[in-house]
Amino acid sequence: MTDRLDGPPAPPPVSQAVPEAAPEKAPEPAPVKAGSLGPPARLAIWFLLPGVLLLGAMVIYPIIYSIFRSFYDSNGNTFVGVENYATIFNDSSTLTTIRNNLIWVAVAPALVTAVGLVFAVLTERIRWATAFKLIVFMPMAVSLMASGVIFRLVYEQAPDRGVANAIITSVTDVFGSSDGYPDARPRENDRSPVAGQQGAVVTKQPAGPGKAVLLPLVGVKPETLASAATAKAPQPGPGELAGTVWVDFTQGGGGAVNQVDPTEKGLTGVTVEAVQNGAVKATATTEADGTFRLTGLAPGDYLVRLPESNFHAAFNGIAWLGPALITPAIIGAFIWVWAGFSMVLIAAGLSAIPRDALEAARIDGATEWQVFRKITIPLLAPVLLVVFVTMIINTLKVFDLVFVIAPGSVQPQANVIALEMWRVSFGGGGNQGLGSALSIFLLILVLPFMIINIRRFRRDNQ
Predict the structure, then answer these.
(1) CA 24 → CA 18, 21, 27, 28, 119, distances in Å?
(2) Percent of the chain beyond pLDDT 70?
(3) CA pair distance 381, 360, nearest whole angstrom
């Protein structure tokens, strides 16, 4: 029998809470002396020293010596003060170099930046963008000296050697003949049937339809007639006024004056006019044998005239290397060299422009020109400024292209400060005092743009 306990059951035993142990504190690091981590700071001086010495020898010392030398005469023995600097602004040839540099700064950087911008935009819209970039950037792989040699050949005036004039003459030949006889003239005697009249050649006696007219000329150079055909006597048909324009001269002597002889040459491509009462009634052009036929004339008397245009010299290309065009020609070569550099920098800026801004503008109804002008250009402004300032520095220092492209006879008209500095110092002038003054003057011109670029780079890196 089991004993039964009366009363409520006893509560379960309560476990006694044990307090948690506090986490152990990490030991504080011992104080570290300044400079004990890594190599000592003075060791960096030894790594910087070669660069500092090279910078001092190649940049700082030449600048200081040039400043010092600019205050002395050509021999360096006599102190002349600021006389060399005064010469820069008093000498006419030096003023020409300053004027040319101003033209360079005003034109070349803007054109290089604009051309680079156009090329950069094109690379985003054409299929063969990589090949296009390679072709445009290729001149950067060529030295400026070699580029000058290339463009010296491009700008040759003779169309058979100069590429620029070969293209121009090819185009002009499509729209008009380039043949001319600037040396041709009538005989200066009373027996000649033609006479000169205000640059043209006119028959002395009028003739009507059905008549033959002879227009003999002399003075044409033999080399012009090397491929000319033999002249033929005119044979007018009914109602035609026919004739022959030829060189009335038989080599070796002989022949009859004012008659077409068997060995005499005709003049091809000559414009002939039938004139009545001062008005042109008909026009024709001579054939290879010098003959022409004026048709559609009413009965009456007409004077036959060779207009002045027949006696203009044939177009022989533009004088790119002449005094008038030498500076624009060299600027064109400069653009060819640096357009690739400008294109690459601007293309990198274009790739960083957020496309959603451009797409939002197009969705709002903006045209491509408006997107380009009001969105692309403002977002590209920092890159365009860097390219523009860099090109200004390059134009101020330009030397190689001017030295190689400009012939010696026109170098005074194409001269720039850098070339003048070399010329007066080492190119025969022998005046290193004036050359040093020019170098310091050029440094003063370049320095503000270098500071602008440095500040821009620092601001971009912050």
Answers:
(1) 18, 9, 9, 12, 69
(2) 90
(3) 20
CA dist list (Å): 300 to 212, 213, 239, 274, 297: 14, 15, 11, 11, 8
223 phi, psi to nearest 5 deg: -65, -25
Q: Residues 210, 266: contact at Cβ < 8 Å?
A: no
pLDDT of residue 26: 55
| pLDDT per residue as tens digits for the range 35-56 | 556 677 788 888 889 999 999 9
Tens of pLDDT along 129-158? 888 888 999 998 888 889 999 999 999 988
DSSP assignment of 112-180, as one string? Answer: HHHHHHHHHHHHTTSTTHHHHHHHHHGGGGS-HHHHHHHHHHHT-SSTTT-HHHHHHHHHHHHHS----
Homologous superfamily (CATH) of 91-166+320-430 is: MetI-like (1.10.3720.10)
Domain layout of the chain by residue ranges:
91-166+320-430, 194-311
pLDDT band at 97 (very low <50, low <70, confident <90, very high): very high
The SS3 call for residue 283 is strand
* Helical residues (DSSP H) of 21-90, grouped into ranges: 42-55, 61-69, 83-90
